[in-house]
Amino acid sequence: MRNPYVVGRWVSGQNHYGRQHVIDTLLNSPETEFWVVGTRRAGKTSLLHQLEHLTDREGCSWVPLIWDMQGCETSGDLSDELYMAVEDAHQRFEHCGVTVRRLAGLDATVILARLAESIGAAGKKLLLMADEVEVLLRIARSEPAWVTRLHAALSSGNQKTILTSTQLLANLNRLCVGNAHTPFLQNFNVIHLWKLEPEVAAALVEQRQSDEPLAVAPEIIAAILDHTNCNPYLIQYLCHRLYHEADGAFLGFARRTRPTSTRTTCWLGCSRLTYSTCRRCSARSCFCWQSAPGLRTIGSRVCWLTSQLRNSRRSCGGWSVLGRSVWRMDAGRLATYSSGNG
Ligand SMILES: Nc1ncnc2c1ncn2[C@@H]1O[C@H](COP(=O)(O)OP(=O)(O)OP(=O)(O)O)[C@@H](O)[C@H]1O
Ligand SMILES: [Mg+2]
């Protein structure tokens, strides 16, 4: 059975867990400007794609557009990127009377005004979602007047604007003043992306939204939530490593409701001890805990696993994606936020 956990790419639809309160606020509040702040890998891009997933349907009053600013260095880059985003989703805009090819080569501020106008005339509203907005910090230095114009376009009230970034974006307030000399982010309502609710985090571990949920023992779930601090990325990362593809289970703790295979392999190819023990003992379990008599409690087992992961990070750099500030090994506890996230 394919490993059901998604590590690294953004998730949406049934792979996206929780954030219901944030989603309700973003879609239903009469406010038109939001800034969603989260640490790296907090789920910012996933949230935007989930909003797109929820609103890109007939009968919905929003017309979603995700503007990925990552890698843009000039206003020209941003304008091109915005046009490409519109082109990628051209059908939803053409339904609203937008002639997409006429937007080619235009400045982003003009594209936004035209989109908002046509969509408004069709009785709907543009839901503009800009991701990785930190790029504006650099562009504000070289093109401050353009960033001020962009600020006006984003906060015109003709569309709903959602910006996502890390806390770094706050520096834009010092670098650049928006219209009427107000700080760029002054009128944006701030929403922090925290950890998942424990119940939602448990649902993620058990893949309850999937067609083939897993049954995971309550003490395993508790240990995973404790060691990941309910951070969705850390849960996915740890579960991805714990999950045993051939067995469709979590190291023999959790079984798929319908096991798909009886083949046995070691999930942690890097550990010779585990592998040889596995082969010597049961044909069913991929890991033999008897081989490690000190690891009697679930908590100590998860700690042991995470220390294996830490070792594999040392040898292959596998965890560098997490960034120093997100994870800190702390008295055997896997995930502790140094940034103050929940
Ligand atoms: N709501 C969620 N439900 C399930 N998994 C999630 C959720 N949000 C994030 N994840 C997990 O976190 C990973 C990173 O998510 P995402 O790319 O959306 O974060 P990000 O904040 O945009 O990251 P970056 O700072 O790198 O841009 C995903 O691959 C997935 O494993
Ligand atoms: Mg992202």
Task: Describe what you observe in this structure.
The protein contains 13 helices and 9 strands. With 342 residues, it is α/β, with parallel strands linked by helices. It is globular and about 55 Å long. A hairpin with a 3-residue loop joins β8 (249-250) and β9. It folds into 2 domains: 19-192, Rossmann fold (3-Layer(aba) Sandwich); 198-322, no CATH class. 37% of the residues are buried. The structure holds adenosine-5'-triphosphate and magnesium ion. Residues 6-11, 16-19, 38, 40-46, 204, 232-233, 236 line the site of adenosine-5'-triphosphate.
Unreliable stretches (pLDDT < 50, length at least 5) are 252-293, 312-342
How many E-type strands?
9
The overall average pLDDT, rounded, is: 77
Q: What Rg do the Cα atoms give?
A: 23 Å
Query: Helicity, in percent?
Result: 25-40%
Secondary structure tally, helices? 13
Main structural class: alpha/beta
Give the SSE string. HEHEHHHEHHEHEHEHHEEEHH
**CATH-level-4 superfamily name of the largest domain:** P-loop containing nucleotide triphosphate hydrolases
Please give a handful of descriptors for the protein shown:
342 residues; single chain; binds adenosine-5'-triphosphate; binds magnesium ion; 2 domains; Rossmann fold; disordered C terminus; alpha/beta; five-stranded parallel β-sheet; globular; 11% strand; four-stranded antiparallel β-sheet
